[in-house]
Design a protein that fits this description.
- With about 240 residues, this protein is mainly alpha-helical.
- About 60% of the residues lie in helices and about 5% in strands.
Length: about 240
């Protein structure tokens, strides 16, 4: 599920703040709720008809250990972006751990198919430029639902684009490069969806308003990610 014009999303996110004044009717910080709900419905249709069936087939046909190898490989590909954001956030200890993980897993872990770093006592973590902007004090802006990428906000949409440019694999040119990037992205969707086949279904069935539930869960998860899992978030922007 590749969002072809990803840069356009960032420009949209930056421009929307000039279009609507937030009012009580637009709370909670979702002035584009009507449009967001329409996009949410489209994303749900794609999930039900494309991603979910693919994830079910993937989980059924690929043994768990093989799926773990794919998961570790995809995680390893994201380590350079995590490293760059660790550095930009001034988290140099975490950056050194990320660099060690990438080096060890890429060599002794056979291109990342085996996560030997975690076994050696260096667990992984994830950082993105949206988190970096939050650490720098940039507010989240309006809530957005992106085509195929789902819940986001203005800050995280800009961060999504920045991470593309921070990713060194973006600049590797090879035959069928576009297919490699597409396979990597869709593989990431399959990996996440296959690991959470019943989770989203359970949330949807237990929600009076699934859209509002996802919006709330997204904000909570992002706040926790920005705080690096710490419970004290008083110094972070209020979502």
């Amino acid at each position: 599920m590749v969002f072809i014009r990803i840069t356009g999303a960032a420009l949209l996110a930056l421009s929307l703040s000039a279009c609507v004044a937030t009012t009580a009717e637009n709370a909670p910080n979702d002035p584009f709720e009507k449009q967001n709900r329409a996009m949410f419905a489209t994303d749900q249709w794609l999930d039900r008809n494309v991603v979910y069936p693919s994830a079910v087939a993937y989980a059924a046909l690929v043994p768990p250990k093989a799926r773990d190898r794919v998961h570790d490989f995809l995680d390893n590909l994201s380590e350079p972006v995590t490293f760059a954001n660790d550095v930009l956030q001034g988290e140099f200890d975490r950056a050194s751990q990320t660099l060690w993980r990438f080096s060890a897993n890429s060599t002794f872990g056979l291109a990342g198919f085996f996560d030997i770093a975690t076994g050696a006592g260096v667990p992984g973590h994830s950082e993105d430029f949206g988190q970096t902007l939050a650490v720098w004090g940039v507010p989240d802006g309006y809530y957005l639902v992106l085509p195929m990428f789902g819940p986001s906000n203005q800050r995280d949409t800009v961060g999504l684009v920045a991470d593309v440019y921070l990713d060194p694999f973006t600049y590797i040119r090879m035959k069928q490069h576009i297919w490699w990037q597409g396979a990597r992205m869709y593989g990431g969707y399959l990996d996440v969806r296959a690991r959470n086949l019943n989770t989203l279904t359970g949330i949807e069935r237990g929600s009076v308003d699934y859209y509002a539930s996802v919006r709330s869960l997204y904000r909570q998860s992002r706040k926790d990610a920005i705080a690096n899992g710490k419970t004290d978030t008083k110094d972070l922007p209020d979502f």
